[in-house]
Amino acid sequence: MKKDDLGAIPRHIAIIMDGNGRWAKERGLPRTEGHRRGAESVRAMTEGCRELGVEFLTLYAFSSENWKRPKREVDALMKLLEIYLKQETKVMMKNNIKLQAIGRLHDLPESCQKALHQAIETTANNTALTLILALSYGGREEIIDGVKSIVEAVGKGHIDSAMINTEMFGKHLYTRYYPDPDLLIRTSGEMRLSNFLLWQLSYTEFYITDKLWPDFRKDELREAVQAYGKRHRRFGGV
Ligand code: FPP
Predict the structure, then answer these.
(1) Where are the domains of the chain?
(2) Alpha helices in the chain (DSSP H)
(3) Ligand 1, closest atom to CA 81?
(4) 66 is catalytic
(5) Of the listed 4, 5, 20, 66, which one is catalytic?
(6) Confidence (pLDDT) at 234
(7) pTM of the predicted model as reported, rounded to 2 decimal places
(8) Which of 12, 184, 206, 232 could pair with 56 as two cysteines, CB 3.0-4.6 Å apart?
């Protein structure tokens, strides 16, 4: 993908992948078929971001709230994730992509956790793009886990409560190794954050498109990055 006419390239893109179910419904297909096509968009995004020189891509693949879906759908999503991880490790190695994950990963089925840790380990030394999957992830849950971690450190005398500030708090979040996202993309036209990266999106530019996730591919990514390139970020200044 060419990047000459795009302007500034975001260093970190975060995506709320929405609309798999609607995509399937429009075609009279089962929802799981929408998720399967959505996984193809994940592959396209990873490739597209690497080609553009984006350094971090965070995908909201399964939220804390998604556990409330019918068991059949949850099982299908977990299976799809496991298959994706097993199949894509080779591709990630070829494309120099490093896999990471955030969320309450211990909630995932054993076989999924195993595939995930295997893929993370195998790709650990890759350097082109870091792909971060948010799994069993909730922004409020992450903040609570961060508070617990700080309280524990204060209790053990490792830190003084007077030292707590925004920078330090950020170091107790799942995302401590990554910069905050520059661009948030949400597909299928919804204007909500849905408990995604509540702390980290404070100064992020939002791009919302009516395209459903299975239809969001490299051309659509290009449009989003182009729109981002035209924004003027002020971070609260003038
Ligand atoms: C939203 O569509 C999507 C999800 C809840 C899951 C995202 C999962 C994938 C894209 C596939 C697997 C992921 C990986 C990383 C391989 P929805 O079901 O909420 O759609 P709807 O709002 O139209 O019902």
Answers:
(1) 12-138+179-229
(2) 20-26, 31-52, 71-94, 110-122, 139-155, 166-170, 218-229
(3) 16
(4) yes
(5) 66
(6) 74
(7) 0.96
(8) 12
